[in-house]
Design goal:
single chain; mainly alpha; 7 helices
């Protein structure tokens, strides 16, 4: 499931995944998260600003660290809950997105797709 970042209520989202999963089934969640924070290392102002820009561009609610998903999954008594950070594998995707936005043929398609898509494309280039 790759949409957790769009869900404002992470608890409700995971409860619904749990409800519809086949008994004994496997749920894999791939989602955008911010880095883990502790009181001595909160998100820095520039990080908050960047996350807000991304949220505004992609219509996302508040970001959470991966530990929040794990906490909720454990509270639902999911078995064998594991987490991993795939950031280094996903990072090359964003320059490819930006290059595709800037291709002349795609640029005009984007313009025809509407205001929300244009807003997202501009935000991707700026971030």
């Amino acid at each position: 499931m790759e949409s957790g970042e769009h869900m404002p209520n992470k608890e409700l989202f995971l409860k619904e995944l749990h409800r519809v999963a086949k008994p004994g089934g496997r749920i894999i969640i791939v989602t955008w998260c911010h880095r883990e924070t502790i009181s001595s290392s909160p998100l820095q102002p520039w990080e908050v600003k960047l996350l807000q820009k991304i949220s505004n561009a992609y219509f996302l609610p508040e970001w959470v660290p991966v530990s929040r998903y794990k906490q909720v999954a454990n509270s639902l008594r999911w078995m064998d809950v594991r987490v991993d950070d795939w950031s280094t594998f996903v990072a090359p995707f964003w320059p490819a997105v930006i290059r595709s936005i800037l291709k002349p043929s795609n640029f005009f398609k984007m313009l025809r797709s509407g205001k929300a898509t244009i807003k997202s494309a501009i935000a991707a280039v700026r971030c």
